[in-house]
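Field reference: "sequence" (input) and "structure" (output). Example, UspA domain protein:
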Amino acid sequence: MISRVLVPMDESEMAERALRFALEAHPDAEIIVVHVVGQPSSMMGSAAGLALADDTEEEAEEQASDLFERAREIAAESGVEIETEVMAGHPARAVADASEGFDVVVIGSHSGSIADRLLVGNVAEKIVRGSAAPVTVVR
C-alpha cells in the first residue's frame, strides 16, 4: 500500500499534471510537494537572489510560495490537503536523496524550455536513475 508520495514541482504544466496524477492514483496517501531551489551561487539565475539574501531559508520559502499556493489549489480541487517543503541543491540529487523516506515519487516527464533541458540535462531521468523509491513519470 502506498502511504507516502513525493511530488517534486517546478512551475511547469508537467509538474501540475504529476500532482494531479498523484492525487488521483493515491487518494489515501500523504502527499508531500517539494520544490528545489538551486544552491546559492552568484552564477545561477534564481539562486543568485538566494545567495545574496540575508536569510537564505526565508528567501527559498519566498521563491516557492506561489508554486506551493498553486499546488494547494490543485489539491483542494480533489478535497485533499498536502504538505510542502523547500529543499536546496541540485534538483535531481535533492529529490533522489529525499526519496528514501517515500513509497513512490511522482514526477512530470519534463519541464522548462528546450534550452533549459539541454543546459541542465533531463532531471526526470536523473531522478529515475537515483531514486531509492519507485518513480512514476507522468506525461
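Residues 40-45, 47-53 have pLDDT under 50 and may be disordered.
The longest helix spans residues 56-77.
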